[in-house]
Amino acid sequence: MKVLVTGATGYLAGHCVAELLTHGYSVRGTVRDLRTADIAHLSALAAQTDGELDFVEADLTDDSGWSEAVEGCVYVWHVASPFPTSVPKDEDEVIRPAVEGTLRVLRAARSSGSVRRVVLTSSGAAVHHGHDDDRIFTENDWTDLSKAGPYAKSKTLAEKAAWDFARESGLELVVLNPSTVLGPILNADVNTSVELIRRIMQGTLPFLPRISWDIVDVRDLARLHRLAMETPSAAGNRYIAAGQFMWAHEMASVLADHYRPRGYRIGTGTMPYWLMWVVSRFDPSSRLALTFWGRMDRSSAAKAEKELGWTSRPPSEAVLDTAASMIELGVVPRR
After folding, report:
1. CATH number where 59 lies
2. How many C-beta atoms surround the C-beta of residue 214 within 10 A?
3. Mean pLDDT of 118-143
4. Residue 283 has what pLDDT?
5. 103 domain residue, yes or no
6. What is the tally of structural domains in the chain?
């Protein structure tokens, strides 16, 4: 059976391709431009597993290519979505491609005649943003759009549009809402979610902002996609993918214990708010991080554990494996 993975060269999507190939599925990946796409690491994965892998050009902002992308596919994993490294000047830069792109994929899947189910990668950002209480969030919770930033809005509106489409069309849909994703990178293209690890390892963050996350390992998240695809009773459900909770300085301490003896200068102090505010005036990524200052957004993955038999490895393992892969691929200098 062939599975379509959108945005195949992305961080999570690459692990999704690997998960499918190692479990005997044929995979088709979408890329925006085959002439410039970095697909070498994915082709190597296919060769190692003796799996079938092909690519097709399709862009979330354009209708062309999507009917060809879904042709002959039994399942679709819609993973691709804009993930900004800074707060955009116009929120529609993020919201429009997320919502319109999701609907393009779903329309193509419905019209294909072959697609049985779509697994949509949403986000924890569609669950817990805009709430000030200390509850443990579940799949029953939704982000408050009146208090959410552009990225959280984009994920929430895209997921809501997907559920509306599924109800109206009868398309079988499962949605996953992952927390912060860490774990080994597959190529040297560092995405937003692992950027903090790179900066800690390079020694450019002597002090860490007071921000925190529930962490899910990218390999476990890819496995959850497969479980959501293969489990008949998963249809029509949301599933949170979240592991244990960690503050940024705790992540740095895990890295320091392991890598300081090897010569890496890793800071573990906590940056005061006023200093973070000053830095954010000049650093767009710090400006984005400032919006998460002091928050403790914690979510429960009990539903995925109970209904899909899913488990998540310890966050310290995800943190260390992220760093190890960065050293291996030359993103962080070897000491």
Report:
1. 3.40.50.720
2. 26
3. 92
4. 73
5. yes
6. 1
Distances (CA, A) of 267 to 320, 321, 330: 15, 19, 21
Helix (H, G, I), strand (E, B) or coil at 3: strand
Q: Is 155 a catalytic residue?
A: yes
- Would you say the C-alpha torsion 184, 301, 285, 60 has a positive or negative sign? positive
Nearest to 81 by CA among 71, 72, 93, 94: 94
Q: At what angle do helices 40-49 and 11-22 cross, to 10 degrees?
A: 10
Confidence check: pLDDT of 290 > 70: no
Answer whether residue 273 is part of any domain: no
Helices (H), the chain: 11-22, 40-49, 66-70, 92-112, 150-169, 195-201, 218-230, 248-259, 273-280, 284-290, 302-308, 315-328
Among 155, 160, 303, 306, which one carries the catalytic annotation?
Answer: 155
CA nearest to 251, candidates 183, 329, 331, 332: 183
Domain containing residue 62: 2-184+216-243+298-303
- Reference 116, options 18, 15, 231; nearest CA is 231
- Kindly tell me the sign of the dihedral angle through the C-alpha atoms of 217, 191, 228, 307: positive
Residue 79 has pLDDT above 60, yes or no: yes
* 95 found inside a domain: yes
Does residue 279 form part of some domain?
Answer: no
Q: What is the mean pLDDT of residues 243-251?
A: 92
Q: What H or E segment, with its residue span, contains residue 144?
A: none
Query: What span, in angstroms and rounded, lies between the C-alpha atoms of 60 and 31?
Result: 10
What is the secondary structure of 92-138 as a DSSP string? Answer: HHHHHHHHHHHHHHHHHHHHHS---EEEEE--GGGTSTT--S-PEE-
Q: Are 264 and 335 in contact (CB under 8 A)?
A: yes
Place of tokens 């895209």: 158
At 178, the amino acid letter reads P
Residue 289 has pLDDT above 80, yes or no: no
**Tokens at residue 293, please?**
């200052």
Our measurement of the distance from residue 139's CA atom to the centroid of its chain's CA atoms, rounded to an integer in Å, reads 17
Chain centroid to CA 327: how far? 21
